[in-house]
Fold these 4 entries.
Entry 1:
Amino acid sequence: MGQMVSDGVVQEQAAPKVGVIKNGREILLQAFNWESHKHNWWSNLEGRVVDIAKSGFTAAWLPPPTQSLSQEGYLPQNLYSLDSCYGSLQQLNSLIQNMNDHNIRAMADVVINHRVGTTQGSNGMYNHYDGIPIPWDEHAVTSCSGGKGNKSTGNNFDGVPNIDHTQPFVRKDIIEWLIWLRETIGFQDFRFDFTKGYASKYVKEYIEESKPLFAVGEYWDSCEYSPTDNRLSYNQDKHRQRIINWIDSAGGLCAAFDFTTKGILQEAVKGELWRLRDPEEKPPGVMGWWPSRSVTFIENHDTGSTQGHWPFPSDHVMEGYAYILTHPGIPTVFYDHFYDWGDSFHDEIAKLMEIRKCQDIHSRSTVRILEANSNLYSAIIDDKLCMKIGEGSWCPSDAEWKLAASGNRYAVWHK
C-alpha cells in the first residue's frame, strides 16, 4: 500500500473484522516495565484496576504470561503453562476477571518468533520440545537458527530456536494456543512481539483465526540518520513506509507501534519542533499516513525502563504526552510514567486523557498544524481542541478557546 491510500477506504475494507480499530477511541496502558517480574506483578496490578478504569484506559498490555527461561517472559518454552515470574495462573485469572468487570481488555504479549526447547536436537541446539504441550522437534525450527525447517521469512532472533511459521502444523498449533488464550484465559487483545522475525501474512492468518478484538505488532526498524553527523534525518518517509507496508501485508487487521513518531518526537522536543510537520503539512510519523493503525507511545520496556535502549528525554515527557494524547492514532501510556513518577505525572496524564475523551478525539481525527519551529509547535485537532508544546509562548487568538490543561512547556485548550 502506498502512502496516499485514504484512511477511510482502508477502514471500510477492514472494518467487518476489526470493530475496535473502526471505533478508534482506544487509550492503552503498557502495564509493566522490565523489572515487573520481581514484584508479584499480577497481584500488584489487580490493586490498580479501579484506578486504571477510572483514568479511562480501554485496554492494558500485560507482560508475556507463559513459562519462560528468562524471567521477563521473552524466551518462552511451555506455552500452556501460565505460572510465571509475574505470578500464578490463579492470580492471572483473578486479575483478568477483575479487569473484565471494569471494562478493561487484557492484552496478551504474544511471543511466537522463537521458542526454547527442553532437550537437544541432533546439532546440540535445544530445539526439541519433549515432555510439554506442543511437543515439536527441530522441523518446527528455521534452518537459519539450527533447525530442520525452512529458511526464515524474516530476521533471525539470535541465540534461540526461531519458529518456522511456513509449516502448517506449526501454524495450527499456534492458532489453537491463541484461541485458548482468548476463550479459556480471557485475553481479548494481542500484542505480537518481534514481528520482523516472520512474514506479516502469518500475523494476518493468526488474527483471522483467533479473532482478538484488537491487535498491535512490534515492527521496530531503525530510523534514517545522517551519515555525516549521525543526526536523525528530517525525512522519515522510508521508515514509516516500511511500517505501513507491514500493516498492509497483515491485511490491515493489525495496528503497529508508531516507532517513526517516537523517534521524531523525542528529537523534536529538544528544540527541533520543526520536525513535527512533514512537507505535506501532516504529522511526520505513521500517524500522518495511516492514523487508525498507528499506536503511538513515548516509552516502553525496551526503549526506557532499566534497559534504556532508545529513551525519551525525561524532562520532556509531559510534552510527549501532550502531543500523542491530543493527536490522532491510538495513544499508549507507559506504566512508569503513570504510576512510578509521582502523583503529578499521573494526574497530568489522566487530565489529558479526560480531555481527549470529552472532546471525542479519536484515531482518525484531523490535524491542522499552525506552528512548527525550533521552540514551538501548535495545532488544532478536529476544530475541537488546540494545543502547544515547546518553550515558545503561544495561545489561540479566538476567545472561544478555553484553557483546559497546562504544565511545563505544554498547554491544551478546547471550546
Entry 2:
Amino acid sequence: MSSAAKQWFYKMMHEEPIIMWSCFVGGVGLLMPVVVLPIREALGSGTNIPAGPPSPHQVASALSGKNK
C-alpha cells in the first residue's frame, strides 16, 4: 500500500469511521457467498438454494403449521 493510500485510509478512519466500517461490512457481505459455499460443499452440506420465491400457498401452510 502506498504512503498516500495509507494516509487517506487513516484520515478517513478518523474523520468518517461509520462510512469506513459500513464499507468494510458491505465488502464482507459481498465475499460471504464466495467463501462460505465452497466450505459448505467441502464439508458435505448441501446448498439448498431455492429456485424462486415460495408461493403464497406454501407460505400460508407454513405459517399455519399445516404440511402437505
Entry 3:
Amino acid sequence: MPGPFETLRISEILAVILDGLQGDKKSLYHMSCCCRAFTDPALDILWRSMHSFAPFTSLISQSVSFVNDAQTSDCDLLKYRCNSLDDWKTFDKYAARVWSLRIGEHNNNSADLIKNRDCYTRLTVIRGQDEFHPFPKLRSLAYVLSGPISPQAKPFPPSLRSLTLVCHNTLDCDPIELALDRAVAEAPHLKELCIIGLMRTMRTLQSTPQLQFGQIGSVDLSKAYIRAPELAALCTLLSQAPISDLKIHLQDRLNMNWQAIPPMFPALKQLDVRGSMFSVILFMSRLAATNLHTLVFQPDGQLSGVTTFFDYLIPIIAEKLGKSLKSFDLHINEPRPHARDSDLIKSIFQGLEPLARAGLQSLRLFLQVTSTMPVQFPPEVQSMLEPSAWPSLKRFHFATKATALE
C-alpha cells in the first residue's frame, strides 16, 4: 500500500486537494514551496485567478521596464524588439498560468489602477509584434475603459471567453461600440459580456457598426448606468448577437423614441430586468424573443401604479411570451403602506391568471417587508398564497424578505 506522500503524488488526488484550496493563497504558497512535485500544480492554482495586475509589474525585466513609464509612446514601444526570451522568462512563467485577471473595479479611479491598466495595454503592444499575448490562457478579463485604446494594442486575447468592461466615462474614452468592436474582433470566441458604470456611445443609431458577435450568449447590464442614447445604441448593437441570457437595469422615464429601435433580442431565453414600470413596459414592447422561458422582474420606485402594471405590462407579457414563458419571478422591494399589501397581492395574482392558463409552470412572488412582525393576511388572500390555489403550476412560492434583491 502506498504511503501518504506517494498518494499525494497521484495527480488526480493532488488536483482535488488543490482545487479545495483555491481561496487559501497562503496554503497554496506553502504547498508550492514544500516539494518539487507540488510546485507547478500549486502555482497553477495560486495564479489562476488574479484580482489585480499589480503583482506582474515586478516581474517585468529591467530591459523592458519602460512599459511602466506613462511617457512611453506607442512609437517607442513599436521600436522595441525582444532579442532574448530571457527578458520575458520570469513574467511568462506566471502569466501563462492566469485564467482570470481583474484590472479594474467600478468606482475605483485611482492612479495606480490607471497605471496598471496602461502597463497591461502597453505589454500587449510589445508582445503583439510577435503575435503573442502576455496572458495566452486568459479566459476572463475585467478591463477599465478610461481613455482611448491604442490602435496597436490587443487587450483582448483570442482565448477570452468572459469580458467585463468597467466604464469610467472620461471625455477621451472610446465609445462602447468601438470597444465592443475591438473585443469581438480580437476575441471571436467571447461568450459572456458584462458592462459596469456610465458609458459613452456614438449616440446615433445610424452610426452603429455592424458587428459579428459570434458566440456571445450572456450579457449583464445590471450594474451599468444606461441613459437614453446609450440604451438605444446598445440594444440595437447587441441585438445582432445570439444573446439568450440578459440582465439589465433600466433607468426611470427614459426619454427616447422606442419605435425607432428595431425589434430587440430575438434569441433571448432568460431575462432579468429591473427598473421603473414605465421603462420596463416600453422595453418589453420592443422584445422580439419568441422562446423566452424565464422572466425575473424587480420594479423600482413606489408601486402606487399597480393598476398601470397589470393594465399594460401583463398583457404585453401574455401576448409576446404567453406561449413560451415557463417561469416568472416578481420581487417587490420598495416601501409602501403595509395596509395595502393584501390588495397588492390580489391584484398581482388576478393579473397573472392568464399566464398561468397559458402554460406557466413556476411562479414565485417575493414581498419585501421592514417589520420583524409576521405578516398577516385576510383569509381570502391567504388562500391565494397556497400552492393548491394554483393547480396548473408545477411550482408556486410566496415569501417575504427583509432585504432587496441584489
Entry 4:
Amino acid sequence: GTWQFMAARLLVIPTHGELPVIPDRADDLESFFYVIVWIALRCTDNSFVQGALTKMLHAAFDDDYLDPQGAAKGGDRKIVEVQASNPFQVSRLFNVSLRVLIETLATTFAVRYEKTPKATEIAQYKELFEKQGSGVKSP
C-alpha cells in the first residue's frame, strides 16, 4: 500500500522475525480511515494556520526512520493521533459530521494499540473484582 495511508501496525512492525507482517481486514479499514482523514483535512474548510496543516500531515503520514537492522519503520505518530482526544486536530474542521466520523473511527482503531495487561495487572483486577462482591463471576 501507499506508505502514508498504511495501518500504523504495518509500519511499526514491518516484519515478525524474518517474515513480513500480513495485512488483515482491520489494517485495510484503518488504511481507509487515514485516506478519509487526509482528504478531510486537505480538502475541507478548517481553521489551521497556513503551514500548520502541512506540518502536521507530514509528521503524521510521512514520518519514517531506519531501525537498527536497516528496515524502514514509521507509524508512531499515527498511533498517538488515534489515541488522542482530538485526533489529527479534527476540532479545527468546520464540518461537524466529518469531525464526529473521524473521532469515532479513531476511538475504534485506538483499541488496536492498547497495551495488553500484564499477568500481575490481571490478577489485581480479579482480586478487586472479587472483593467488590457484586455476585458476578470474575472473567
